[in-house]
């Protein structure tokens, strides 16, 4: 059971909520690694996946999690819907809820859209990413993966490197990791660093090597060109020279570090293939853990909704 009805952002969760998600995900990870991967936990629950932005990993991960829990699943793509004809968000969701949908998983390009929807419809809302604001399930699976690797998150040094300004993953990760007692550093060009970021209790570093020498885990973020309306650095080539992580850099560090990436990876930009596919990388573990974490979130929120 969680203390919230909706998962709108990590900011709303208590540390006990996060631990509850993790312990539930531990059980579901056992489920998805056995021959029969389904449980009847949400057999009477109908879940609508509303994606107003393109997505591959998150959408498939949620859908797989829902089907593993035996829920009935409705998939909605904005490009082929009445939204393209001018229908409002509330009208769209209200029409879907009239079909007796219990939970809504939504990705939307506008920050605050999940919160807005939660105040206007009678269903449990799970934020699958709202603009550059939050992406709570990604932060949960990232922290869960760190816990799995090191045994705990508390006391670990995590560097989030790349396009901090436009990243919902960065903000949710900062909230989550801080609640769990980790030390957090953000690293990237000054032009891609939000002005308010030090107020979140994180270190700010603009030198990649210093960040990598400091951290236990480097979570690499891609450059989100689709959200950039101006040029924030001279060229991709210069960005790679300043902030790209390759095998040579990793081998020159004074200690081995762990590499993570929320995806999609721009290979050869933020990390090279020999880093992404190396033994130091947890990228595929993140993808696997994403299903278990989303199963846990759906299960716990459905229980809260029934209560």
Describe the 3D structure:
There is one protein chain. With 307 residues, this protein is α/β, with parallel strands linked by helices. The protein has two domains: 10-135 and 288-306, Rossmann fold (3-Layer(aba) Sandwich), CATH 3.40.50; 136-286, Aspartate/ornithine carbamoyltransferase (Rossmann fold), CATH 3.40.50. It is 39% helix and 15% strand. The chain has eleven helices and nine strands. The protein has helices at 15-32, 57-68, 89-97, 113-118, 136-150, 168-179, 208-214, 236-243, 247-252, 273-276, 283-306, and strands at residues 46-51, 72-77, 103-108, 124-130, 157-161, 183-187, 203-205, 217-220, 258-260. The strands form two sheets. Strands 7-6-5-8-9 form a five-stranded parallel β-sheet, with helices on both faces. Strand 1, helix 2 and strand 2 (72-77) form a beta-alpha-beta unit. Helix 5 (136-150) crosses helix 6. The longest helix is centred in the C-terminal third of the chain and has 24 residues, at 283-306. The chain is globular. The model has no long low-confidence stretch (mean pLDDT 92).
């Amino acid at each position: 059971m969680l203390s919230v009805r909706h998962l709108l952002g990590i900011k709303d969760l208590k540390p006990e909520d996060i631990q509850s998600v993790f312990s539930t995900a531990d059980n579901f990870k056992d489920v998805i690694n056995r021959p029969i991967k389904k449980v009847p936990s949400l057999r009477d629950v109908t879940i609508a996946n509303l994606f107003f932005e393109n997505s591959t990993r998150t959408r498939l991960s949620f859908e797989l999690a829902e089907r593993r829990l035996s829920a009935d699943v409705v998939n909605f793509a904005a490009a082929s819907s009445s939204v393209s004809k001018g229908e409002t968000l509330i009208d769209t969701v209200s029409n879907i809820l009239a079909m007796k949908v219990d939970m809504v998983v939504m990705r939307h390009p506008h920050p605050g859209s999940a919160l807005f929807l939660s105040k206007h419809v009678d269903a449990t809302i799970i934020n699958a990413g709202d603009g550059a604001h939050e992406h709570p399930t990604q932060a949960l699976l990232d922290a869960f993966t760190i816990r799995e690797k090191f045994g705990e998150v508390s006391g670990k040094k995590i560097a989030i490197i790349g396009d901090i300004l436009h990243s919902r993953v960065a903000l949710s990760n900062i909230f989550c990791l801080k609640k769990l007692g980790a030390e957090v550093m953000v690293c990237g060009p000054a032009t891609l660093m939000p002005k308010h970021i030090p107020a979140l209790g994180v270190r700010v570093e603009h030198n990649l090597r210093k960040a990598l020498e400091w951290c236990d885990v480097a979570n690499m973020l891609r450059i989100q060109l689709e959200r950039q309306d101006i040029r924030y650095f001279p060229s991709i080539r210069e960005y790679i020279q300043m902030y790209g992580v390759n095998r040579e850099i990793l081998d020159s560090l004074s200690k081995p570090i762990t590499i993570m990436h929320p995806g999609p990876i721009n290979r050869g930009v933020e990390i090279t293939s020999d880093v992404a596919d190396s033994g130091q990388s947890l990228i595929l573990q993140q993808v696997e853990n994403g299903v278990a974490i989303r199963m846990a979130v759906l299960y716990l929120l459905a229980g809260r909704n029934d209560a």
